[in-house]
Design brief:
Layout lengths: L13 H14 L8 E2 L11 H4 L22 H16 L8 E4 L1 H13 L5 E4 L6 H8 L5 E4 L12 H14 L5 E6 L11 H13 L3 E6 L15 H4 L6 E6 L12 E4 L3 H15 L4 H10 L2 H31 L13 E5 L5 H12 L1 E2 L1 E2 L13 E5 L4 H18 L1
Parallel strand pairs: 1-10, 3-4, 3-5, 5-6, 6-7
Antiparallel strand pairs: 2-8, 7-8, 9-12, 11-12
Helix pairs in contact: 3-10, 4-9, 6-7, 11-13
Bound molecules: pyridoxal-5'-phosphate.
Length: 412
Protein backbone atom coordinates (compact mmCIF):
# COMPACT_ATOMS: atom_id res chain seq x y z
CA UNK A 1 0.00 0.00 0.00
CA UNK A 2 1.42 3.37 -0.95
CA UNK A 3 -0.37 5.39 1.71
CA UNK A 4 -0.07 5.15 5.48
CA UNK A 5 -2.20 2.09 6.27
CA UNK A 6 -4.33 3.82 8.90
CA UNK A 7 -5.60 6.43 6.46
CA UNK A 8 -7.90 4.22 4.39
CA UNK A 9 -9.72 3.34 7.65
CA UNK A 10 -10.35 7.00 8.37
CA UNK A 11 -13.25 8.66 6.71
CA UNK A 12 -13.26 12.22 5.51
CA UNK A 13 -14.85 14.43 8.18
CA UNK A 14 -18.62 14.03 7.92
CA UNK A 15 -19.21 17.73 8.54
CA UNK A 16 -16.68 18.79 5.92
CA UNK A 17 -17.97 16.21 3.48
CA UNK A 18 -21.50 17.61 3.59
CA UNK A 19 -20.33 21.24 3.61
CA UNK A 20 -18.07 20.70 0.61
CA UNK A 21 -20.69 18.72 -1.30
CA UNK A 22 -23.15 21.56 -0.78
CA UNK A 23 -20.59 24.17 -1.84
CA UNK A 24 -19.95 22.27 -5.09
CA UNK A 25 -23.65 21.87 -5.74
CA UNK A 26 -24.27 25.57 -5.12
CA UNK A 27 -21.67 26.62 -7.69
CA UNK A 28 -23.96 25.24 -10.38
CA UNK A 29 -27.18 26.78 -9.10
CA UNK A 30 -28.68 30.29 -9.43
CA UNK A 31 -28.65 32.17 -6.09
CA UNK A 32 -32.31 31.60 -5.24
CA UNK A 33 -31.99 27.84 -5.67
CA UNK A 34 -28.83 27.40 -3.62
CA UNK A 35 -28.79 25.17 -0.57
CA UNK A 36 -28.58 27.17 2.68
CA UNK A 37 -25.52 25.72 4.32
CA UNK A 38 -26.03 25.38 8.08
CA UNK A 39 -23.42 22.69 8.56
CA UNK A 40 -20.22 24.36 9.69
CA UNK A 41 -19.29 25.32 13.24
CA UNK A 42 -18.63 28.88 12.21
CA UNK A 43 -19.80 32.15 13.62
CA UNK A 44 -20.99 33.97 10.50
CA UNK A 45 -22.40 36.97 12.35
CA UNK A 46 -19.69 37.87 14.86
CA UNK A 47 -17.66 41.02 14.39
CA UNK A 48 -13.85 40.81 14.26
CA UNK A 49 -13.53 44.52 13.35
CA UNK A 50 -12.80 45.90 16.84
CA UNK A 51 -9.98 43.36 17.21
CA UNK A 52 -8.43 43.53 13.76
CA UNK A 53 -8.52 47.31 13.42
CA UNK A 54 -6.28 47.62 16.49
CA UNK A 55 -3.49 45.54 15.01
CA UNK A 56 -1.14 48.46 14.39
CA UNK A 57 1.33 46.61 12.20
CA UNK A 58 -1.31 46.19 9.49
CA UNK A 59 -1.81 49.89 9.01
CA UNK A 60 1.70 51.35 8.78
CA UNK A 61 3.15 52.75 5.54
CA UNK A 62 5.06 49.54 5.10
CA UNK A 63 4.10 46.25 6.66
CA UNK A 64 7.06 44.52 8.37
CA UNK A 65 7.87 40.85 7.68
CA UNK A 66 5.67 38.35 9.46
CA UNK A 67 8.38 36.34 11.18
CA UNK A 68 8.00 32.94 12.78
CA UNK A 69 6.88 33.44 16.36
CA UNK A 70 8.76 31.54 19.07
CA UNK A 71 7.41 28.00 19.45
CA UNK A 72 5.19 28.89 22.39
CA UNK A 73 4.01 32.21 20.92
CA UNK A 74 5.49 35.65 21.53
CA UNK A 75 6.35 36.35 25.15
CA UNK A 76 4.19 39.48 25.13
CA UNK A 77 1.13 37.52 23.94
CA UNK A 78 1.67 34.81 26.56
CA UNK A 79 2.19 37.40 29.25
CA UNK A 80 -0.85 39.45 28.34
CA UNK A 81 -3.06 36.35 28.23
CA UNK A 82 -1.71 35.30 31.63
CA UNK A 83 -2.05 38.71 33.25
CA UNK A 84 -5.13 40.10 31.62
CA UNK A 85 -7.34 38.04 29.36
CA UNK A 86 -9.00 35.81 31.97
CA UNK A 87 -8.63 38.56 34.56
CA UNK A 88 -10.79 40.89 32.47
CA UNK A 89 -13.56 38.32 31.99
CA UNK A 90 -13.32 36.31 35.21
CA UNK A 91 -10.96 38.08 37.63
CA UNK A 92 -8.49 35.18 37.26
CA UNK A 93 -4.75 35.51 36.75
CA UNK A 94 -2.37 32.90 35.33
CA UNK A 95 1.40 32.69 35.05
CA UNK A 96 3.09 33.29 31.72
CA UNK A 97 4.79 29.91 31.69
CA UNK A 98 1.42 28.14 31.88
CA UNK A 99 0.38 29.69 28.53
CA UNK A 100 1.15 28.50 25.00
CA UNK A 101 -0.29 30.30 21.95
CA UNK A 102 -1.68 27.71 19.53
CA UNK A 103 -3.30 27.33 16.13
CA UNK A 104 -6.85 27.49 17.44
CA UNK A 105 -8.43 25.38 20.15
CA UNK A 106 -7.84 22.41 17.88
CA UNK A 107 -4.09 23.08 18.04
CA UNK A 108 -4.30 23.21 21.82
CA UNK A 109 -6.25 19.93 21.98
CA UNK A 110 -3.84 18.27 19.54
CA UNK A 111 -0.85 19.40 21.63
CA UNK A 112 -2.48 18.18 24.84
CA UNK A 113 -3.52 14.81 23.45
CA UNK A 114 -0.23 14.37 21.65
CA UNK A 115 1.66 15.14 24.86
CA UNK A 116 0.08 12.38 26.89
CA UNK A 117 -1.63 9.62 24.90
CA UNK A 118 0.45 6.47 24.78
CA UNK A 119 -0.48 3.25 22.95
CA UNK A 120 -2.94 1.36 25.16
CA UNK A 121 -4.04 4.43 27.16
CA UNK A 122 -7.75 5.00 27.52
CA UNK A 123 -9.49 8.12 26.24
CA UNK A 124 -12.89 8.81 27.78
CA UNK A 125 -15.41 11.05 26.03
CA UNK A 126 -18.97 12.24 26.55
CA UNK A 127 -21.63 10.53 24.43
CA UNK A 128 -22.29 13.49 22.13
CA UNK A 129 -19.26 15.67 21.71
CA UNK A 130 -16.62 17.15 19.42
CA UNK A 131 -14.76 14.05 18.22
CA UNK A 132 -12.42 15.58 15.65
CA UNK A 133 -9.26 15.38 17.77
CA UNK A 134 -9.59 11.62 18.23
CA UNK A 135 -9.04 11.17 14.53
CA UNK A 136 -6.07 13.54 14.67
CA UNK A 137 -4.48 11.22 17.20
CA UNK A 138 -5.04 8.23 14.95
CA UNK A 139 -3.41 10.17 12.12
CA UNK A 140 -0.47 10.68 14.50
CA UNK A 141 -0.33 6.89 14.92
CA UNK A 142 -1.50 6.60 18.52
CA UNK A 143 -3.36 3.40 19.33
CA UNK A 144 -5.58 4.34 22.23
CA UNK A 145 -8.63 2.61 23.66
CA UNK A 146 -11.87 4.45 23.91
CA UNK A 147 -14.60 4.57 26.54
CA UNK A 148 -17.80 6.53 26.11
CA UNK A 149 -19.71 7.87 29.09
CA UNK A 150 -23.47 7.66 29.01
CA UNK A 151 -25.98 10.47 29.41
CA UNK A 152 -29.21 11.03 27.57
CA UNK A 153 -31.12 13.99 26.24
CA UNK A 154 -32.64 14.80 29.66
CA UNK A 155 -29.22 16.10 30.73
CA UNK A 156 -28.35 17.35 27.24
CA UNK A 157 -25.86 14.50 27.00
CA UNK A 158 -23.69 15.85 29.82
CA UNK A 159 -22.97 13.04 32.29
CA UNK A 160 -23.40 13.92 35.98
CA UNK A 161 -20.19 14.65 37.91
CA UNK A 162 -20.83 11.83 40.40
CA UNK A 163 -21.15 9.28 37.63
CA UNK A 164 -18.09 10.67 35.80
CA UNK A 165 -16.06 10.48 38.99
CA UNK A 166 -17.09 6.93 39.73
CA UNK A 167 -16.48 5.87 36.13
CA UNK A 168 -13.05 7.48 35.87
CA UNK A 169 -12.00 6.36 39.32
CA UNK A 170 -12.93 2.71 38.66
CA UNK A 171 -11.22 2.79 35.28
CA UNK A 172 -8.12 4.34 36.79
CA UNK A 173 -7.88 1.72 39.52
CA UNK A 174 -8.42 -1.18 37.12
CA UNK A 175 -5.79 0.21 34.77
CA UNK A 176 -3.21 1.65 37.12
CA UNK A 177 -0.45 1.12 34.55
CA UNK A 178 -2.31 3.19 31.92
CA UNK A 179 -3.37 6.80 31.65
CA UNK A 180 -7.05 7.68 31.57
CA UNK A 181 -7.55 10.83 29.51
CA UNK A 182 -10.94 12.52 29.82
CA UNK A 183 -11.63 14.93 26.97
CA UNK A 184 -14.64 17.08 27.70
CA UNK A 185 -16.11 20.50 27.03
CA UNK A 186 -17.21 23.36 29.26
CA UNK A 187 -19.88 24.79 26.95
CA UNK A 188 -21.00 21.92 24.78
CA UNK A 189 -21.08 21.66 21.02
CA UNK A 190 -23.67 20.75 19.83
CA UNK A 191 -26.16 20.99 22.70
CA UNK A 192 -25.55 24.56 23.93
CA UNK A 193 -25.50 23.31 27.54
CA UNK A 194 -22.82 24.37 29.99
CA UNK A 195 -21.18 22.40 32.74
CA UNK A 196 -21.31 24.41 35.97
CA UNK A 197 -18.13 25.65 37.57
CA UNK A 198 -18.91 23.61 40.68
CA UNK A 199 -19.27 20.40 38.63
CA UNK A 200 -16.01 21.16 36.84
CA UNK A 201 -14.35 21.68 40.21
CA UNK A 202 -15.50 18.23 41.37
CA UNK A 203 -13.89 16.67 38.30
CA UNK A 204 -10.70 18.70 38.80
CA UNK A 205 -10.55 17.47 42.40
CA UNK A 206 -10.77 13.86 41.24
CA UNK A 207 -7.81 14.53 38.94
CA UNK A 208 -5.94 16.04 41.93
CA UNK A 209 -6.57 12.88 43.94
CA UNK A 210 -5.61 10.45 41.22
CA UNK A 211 -2.26 9.51 39.75
CA UNK A 212 -3.22 8.55 36.23
CA UNK A 213 -6.30 10.61 35.25
CA UNK A 214 -5.69 13.49 32.87
CA UNK A 215 -8.29 16.13 32.04
CA UNK A 216 -8.45 17.96 28.71
CA UNK A 217 -11.02 20.70 29.17
CA UNK A 218 -12.14 22.33 25.91
CA UNK A 219 -13.51 25.78 26.72
CA UNK A 220 -13.81 27.18 23.21
CA UNK A 221 -17.44 28.33 23.78
CA UNK A 222 -17.02 29.96 27.21
CA UNK A 223 -17.89 33.46 25.98
CA UNK A 224 -20.81 32.33 23.83
CA UNK A 225 -23.13 32.38 26.76
CA UNK A 226 -26.57 33.88 27.39
CA UNK A 227 -27.03 33.12 31.09
CA UNK A 228 -23.96 34.73 32.67
CA UNK A 229 -20.29 33.79 32.59
CA UNK A 230 -18.62 31.36 34.99
CA UNK A 231 -14.91 30.63 35.31
CA UNK A 232 -14.21 27.82 32.81
CA UNK A 233 -10.58 27.06 33.70
CA UNK A 234 -10.17 23.64 35.32
CA UNK A 235 -6.50 24.50 35.95
CA UNK A 236 -7.59 27.09 38.48
CA UNK A 237 -10.24 24.92 40.11
CA UNK A 238 -7.66 22.33 41.04
CA UNK A 239 -5.06 22.46 43.83
CA UNK A 240 -1.97 22.51 41.68
CA UNK A 241 -3.28 21.91 38.16
CA UNK A 242 -1.35 18.67 37.83
CA UNK A 243 -2.57 16.57 34.87
CA UNK A 244 -4.95 19.28 33.65
CA UNK A 245 -5.07 21.11 30.32
CA UNK A 246 -7.47 23.89 29.33
CA UNK A 247 -7.89 24.57 25.62
CA UNK A 248 -9.31 27.89 24.44
CA UNK A 249 -9.59 30.01 21.28
CA UNK A 250 -10.98 33.29 20.00
CA UNK A 251 -12.49 31.58 16.96
CA UNK A 252 -16.08 31.66 18.10
CA UNK A 253 -16.66 34.89 20.10
CA UNK A 254 -14.76 37.15 17.69
CA UNK A 255 -15.41 35.29 14.43
CA UNK A 256 -11.74 34.53 13.88
CA UNK A 257 -12.13 30.86 12.93
CA UNK A 258 -9.86 31.03 9.89
CA UNK A 259 -7.06 32.93 11.62
CA UNK A 260 -6.38 30.08 14.09
CA UNK A 261 -6.05 31.98 17.38
CA UNK A 262 -5.88 29.56 20.27
CA UNK A 263 -4.25 28.98 23.60
CA UNK A 264 -3.26 25.98 25.67
CA UNK A 265 -3.04 26.40 29.42
CA UNK A 266 -1.50 23.99 31.85
CA UNK A 267 0.22 24.49 35.19
CA UNK A 268 1.86 21.08 34.84
CA UNK A 269 5.41 21.78 33.65
CA UNK A 270 6.13 18.28 32.44
CA UNK A 271 2.94 18.22 30.37
CA UNK A 272 3.58 21.76 29.12
CA UNK A 273 7.05 20.85 27.86
CA UNK A 274 5.73 17.72 26.15
CA UNK A 275 2.90 19.69 24.50
CA UNK A 276 5.45 22.25 23.30
CA UNK A 277 7.25 19.53 21.35
CA UNK A 278 4.04 18.43 19.66
CA UNK A 279 3.40 22.03 18.67
CA UNK A 280 6.98 22.61 17.52
CA UNK A 281 6.95 19.68 15.15
CA UNK A 282 3.36 20.09 13.97
CA UNK A 283 3.18 23.72 12.91
CA UNK A 284 6.74 25.15 12.87
CA UNK A 285 5.54 28.28 14.65
CA UNK A 286 2.34 29.72 16.02
CA UNK A 287 0.93 32.47 13.87
CA UNK A 288 2.47 35.90 14.63
CA UNK A 289 -0.77 37.56 13.67
CA UNK A 290 -2.58 35.39 16.22
CA UNK A 291 -0.08 36.51 18.88
CA UNK A 292 -0.90 40.15 18.06
CA UNK A 293 -4.59 39.34 18.33
CA UNK A 294 -4.09 37.92 21.83
CA UNK A 295 -2.30 41.15 22.78
CA UNK A 296 -5.23 43.21 21.52
CA UNK A 297 -7.95 41.20 23.24
CA UNK A 298 -5.98 41.15 26.48
CA UNK A 299 -5.41 44.89 26.56
CA UNK A 300 -7.55 46.39 29.36
CA UNK A 301 -8.05 49.53 27.23
CA UNK A 302 -9.93 47.50 24.64
CA UNK A 303 -12.00 45.46 27.04
CA UNK A 304 -15.11 47.62 27.18
CA UNK A 305 -15.55 47.64 23.42
CA UNK A 306 -14.83 43.93 23.12
CA UNK A 307 -17.24 43.09 25.91
CA UNK A 308 -19.95 45.08 24.15
CA UNK A 309 -19.14 43.24 20.90
CA UNK A 310 -19.52 39.86 22.60
CA UNK A 311 -22.73 40.96 24.33
CA UNK A 312 -24.19 42.13 21.01
CA UNK A 313 -23.28 38.80 19.46
CA UNK A 314 -24.86 36.83 22.28
CA UNK A 315 -28.04 38.89 22.01
CA UNK A 316 -28.31 38.11 18.29
CA UNK A 317 -27.55 34.43 18.85
CA UNK A 318 -30.15 34.19 21.59
CA UNK A 319 -32.76 35.77 19.31
CA UNK A 320 -31.85 33.32 16.57
CA UNK A 321 -32.04 30.44 19.02
CA UNK A 322 -35.48 31.50 20.28
CA UNK A 323 -36.76 32.02 16.74
CA UNK A 324 -35.55 28.56 15.75
CA UNK A 325 -37.07 26.99 18.85
CA UNK A 326 -40.43 28.67 18.18
CA UNK A 327 -40.57 27.87 14.47
CA UNK A 328 -39.50 24.25 14.79
CA UNK A 329 -41.72 23.83 17.85
CA UNK A 330 -44.75 24.60 15.68
CA UNK A 331 -43.76 21.62 13.53
CA UNK A 332 -43.39 19.35 16.54
CA UNK A 333 -39.58 19.38 16.36
CA UNK A 334 -37.83 19.90 19.69
CA UNK A 335 -34.44 21.47 20.21
CA UNK A 336 -32.49 19.48 22.76
CA UNK A 337 -30.83 22.34 24.58
CA UNK A 338 -31.19 24.46 27.70
CA UNK A 339 -30.22 27.40 25.46
CA UNK A 340 -27.46 28.58 27.80
CA UNK A 341 -25.37 29.78 24.90
CA UNK A 342 -24.73 28.37 21.46
CA UNK A 343 -24.08 28.74 17.76
CA UNK A 344 -26.28 25.69 17.15
CA UNK A 345 -29.69 24.12 17.48
CA UNK A 346 -29.44 20.39 18.19
CA UNK A 347 -32.80 19.16 16.94
CA UNK A 348 -34.67 15.93 17.30
CA UNK A 349 -35.28 14.63 13.78
CA UNK A 350 -38.82 13.44 12.96
CA UNK A 351 -37.94 10.02 11.53
CA UNK A 352 -35.18 8.78 13.87
CA UNK A 353 -32.77 8.56 10.95
CA UNK A 354 -30.70 11.72 10.95
CA UNK A 355 -28.51 10.77 7.99
CA UNK A 356 -31.57 10.28 5.78
CA UNK A 357 -33.24 13.38 7.19
CA UNK A 358 -30.15 15.45 6.34
CA UNK A 359 -29.98 14.00 2.80
CA UNK A 360 -33.67 14.65 2.25
CA UNK A 361 -33.42 18.21 3.49
CA UNK A 362 -30.52 18.96 1.16
CA UNK A 363 -32.34 17.44 -1.80
CA UNK A 364 -35.85 18.67 -1.20
CA UNK A 365 -35.69 21.66 1.16
CA UNK A 366 -32.30 22.95 0.05
CA UNK A 367 -31.09 23.33 3.62
CA UNK A 368 -28.00 21.49 4.86
CA UNK A 369 -27.59 20.31 8.46
CA UNK A 370 -25.22 17.81 10.08
CA UNK A 371 -26.48 14.44 11.36
CA UNK A 372 -25.99 13.85 15.09
CA UNK A 373 -23.89 10.82 14.18
CA UNK A 374 -21.03 13.24 13.44
CA UNK A 375 -20.72 13.87 17.19
CA UNK A 376 -20.37 10.35 18.51
CA UNK A 377 -17.79 7.61 18.25
CA UNK A 378 -20.06 4.75 19.24
CA UNK A 379 -23.46 4.92 17.54
CA UNK A 380 -26.23 5.31 20.10
CA UNK A 381 -27.99 8.67 20.15
CA UNK A 382 -26.73 10.48 17.07
CA UNK A 383 -29.25 9.05 14.63
CA UNK A 384 -32.10 10.76 16.45
CA UNK A 385 -30.67 14.28 16.14
CA UNK A 386 -29.19 16.81 13.75
CA UNK A 387 -27.18 19.97 14.29
CA UNK A 388 -28.23 23.20 12.67
CA UNK A 389 -25.90 26.22 12.73
CA UNK A 390 -27.92 29.27 13.82
CA UNK A 391 -25.06 31.80 13.80
CA UNK A 392 -26.19 33.20 10.44
CA UNK A 393 -28.20 36.31 9.60
CA UNK A 394 -31.78 36.35 10.77
CA UNK A 395 -32.89 36.56 7.14
CA UNK A 396 -30.96 33.40 6.19
CA UNK A 397 -32.21 31.58 9.24
CA UNK A 398 -35.80 32.64 8.55
CA UNK A 399 -35.52 31.43 4.96
CA UNK A 400 -34.01 28.11 6.10
CA UNK A 401 -36.79 27.61 8.65
CA UNK A 402 -39.45 28.38 6.03
CA UNK A 403 -37.93 25.87 3.65
CA UNK A 404 -37.82 23.21 6.36
CA UNK A 405 -41.43 23.95 7.27
CA UNK A 406 -42.58 23.70 3.66
CA UNK A 407 -40.75 20.41 3.19
CA UNK A 408 -42.17 18.87 6.36
CA UNK A 409 -45.72 20.00 5.60
CA UNK A 410 -45.45 18.43 2.15
CA UNK A 411 -44.30 15.20 3.76
CA UNK A 412 -47.20 14.91 6.18
C1 LIG B 1 -15.87 21.95 20.88
C2 LIG B 1 -14.93 22.49 19.88
N1 LIG B 1 -13.63 22.52 20.17
C3 LIG B 1 -12.73 23.00 19.29
C4 LIG B 1 -13.12 23.46 18.06
C5 LIG B 1 -12.08 23.98 17.13
O1 LIG B 1 -11.87 25.33 17.42
P1 LIG B 1 -10.73 26.16 16.68
O2 LIG B 1 -11.31 26.67 15.41
O3 LIG B 1 -10.42 27.27 17.62
O4 LIG B 1 -9.60 25.24 16.48
C6 LIG B 1 -14.46 23.44 17.70
C7 LIG B 1 -14.89 23.88 16.37
O5 LIG B 1 -16.01 23.80 15.97
C8 LIG B 1 -15.39 22.96 18.65
O6 LIG B 1 -16.69 22.93 18.37
Amino acid sequence: MRVYSVLPQIRYSKIREIAEKVAMKNRLLPPEERVINLTMGQNFIGDPTPVIKKIGLLFGEKIPPFLYAPSLGTFSARESVANNFYYLWYGARLETDWVMITDGAMGAIRNAMGAVVEDGDIIVVDPITFIYSLTTLRIYGRKFKLEVLDADEDTYFIPSPDYIIEFLDTLSQKNSDKKIIYYTQFGFNPSGAFRSKSDLKKIAELVDDSKNIILINDIVYHLIRFDGLELPLASLLSDEGRNIFDCDALSKPFSLMGLRVGVLITRDKELFDAAAKIQQYSIVSPNTFACEIWNVVSDPENFRELKETVERLNKKLKENFEMTRKNLGKLGIDIVSPGQGTLYAFIKVPNGDSEKFVDDLIEHARVALVPGTAFEVVPKYGRYYARMTISVTKKQLQEALERIEKFLRQQS
